[in-house]
Amino acid sequence: MSKYTVALVAHDHKKPDLLAWVKTHLSVMQKCDLVATGTTGSMIEEKTGLSVDCLKSGPLGGDQQIGALIAEGKLDMLFFFWDPLNAAPHDPDVKALLRLCSVWNIPVACNKATADLIVTSPLFLSDDYQAERPAL
Ligand SMILES: O=C(CO)COP(=O)(O)O
């Protein structure tokens, strides 16, 4: 499996779910270059020993930094366990990030079920999977 650059993001109430998911798929995550919003990334580094490129915390611009990676063609996929039950002060940033995933055809998982499907997909496990980038 080639190295994918993967972003991990979770809102506070979803951080335990993302952490458990990363632990379940640790061997896959070890083969990826990981980037994350600040608090999510620090937690994953501390609890799993994985190396994570930690950006700003989400409310301070981390979602937008991940969006910039997408716009620059530097991100292969996003695992974003966002919280549908609690309002976030930076909701416009969250929407903007998810929007860019659609603009640039980036695989994005917003819950565990979809995340499981992505990392067990034969496409993902193939050596050279890359989502087709639209010519914009
Ligand atoms: O708020 C977030 C995503 O919108 C996540 O940010 P943190 O990882 O810094 O908690």
List the helices and strands and how they pair.
Blueprint: E1 5-10, H1 15-24, H2 26-29, E2 33-36, H3 38-48, E3 52-54, H4 62-71, E4 77-81, H5 91-103, E5 108-109, H6 112-120, H7 122-125
Parallel strand pairs: 1-2, 1-4, 2-3, 4-5
The site of 1,3-dihydroxyacetonephosphate (13P) has 13 residues, from helix 3 and helix 4.
Pfam families: MGS
Protein name: Methylglyoxal synthase
Active site: 63 (proton donor/acceptor)
Bound molecules: 1,3-dihydroxyacetonephosphate
**Domain module tally:** 1
Q: Report Rg.
A: 14 Å
Helix content: 40-55%
- Low-pLDDT runs of 5+ residues are none
User: At the third CATH level, what is the topology name?
Assistant: Rossmann fold
The CATH architecture: 3-Layer(aba) Sandwich
Give a count of the beta strands, DSSP E runs of length 2 or more: 5
CATH class category: Alpha Beta
Active site: 63
InterPro entries: Methylgl_synth, Methylglyoxal_synth_AS, MGS-like_dom, MGS-like_dom_sf
Binding site for substrate: 11, 15, 37-40, 57-58, 90
Enzyme class: lyase
Care to describe what's here?
The protein is of the alpha/beta class and 136 residues long. The chain has a single domain, classed as Rossmann fold (3-Layer(aba) Sandwich). The chain contains 7 helices and 5 strands; from the N terminus they run βααβαβαβαβαα. The chain has helices at residues 15-24, 26-29, 38-48, 62-71, 91-103, 112-120, 122-125, and strands at residues 5-10, 33-36, 52-54, 77-81, 108-109. Strands 3-2-1-4-5 form a 5-stranded parallel beta sheet, with helices on both faces. Strand 2, helix 3 (38-48) and strand 3 form a beta-alpha-beta unit. Helix 1 (15-24) packs across helix 3 (38-48) and helix 4 (62-71) packs parallel to helix 5. It starts with a strand and ends in an 11-residue tail after the last helix. The structure holds 1,3-dihydroxyacetonephosphate. The site of 1,3-dihydroxyacetonephosphate has 13 residues, from helix 3 and helix 4. Belongs to the methylglyoxal synthase family. It catalyses: dihydroxyacetone phosphate = methylglyoxal + phosphate. The active site is at 63 (proton donor/acceptor). Its EC number is 4.2.3.3.
